[in-house]
Amino acid sequence: MKCxxxxxxxxxxxxxEKMKFxxxxxxxxxxxxxxxxxxxxxxxIEQTSAIQKAISNxxxxxxxxxxxxxxxxxxxx
Length: 77
Known about the structure:
By secondary structure, the chain is an alpha+beta fold. It has helices spanning 45-62, 68-75; strands spanning 11-21, 24-34, 41-42.
């Protein structure tokens, strides 16, 4: 993936994004493509899907709800 600002190839980077989701502050691990020159962030469909799942799980954990992994574990026991 290339930078839309013409800076060349984006670098795959793992970060922890701080955000507010439904009024709750959460930290979300994310793998994104980042331009080392201008810092613009972009993601593949797979990366975006993983970030959405991580947001959901971080929100659930912060509000004391079961995460997706918790639900799968309970269902399989």
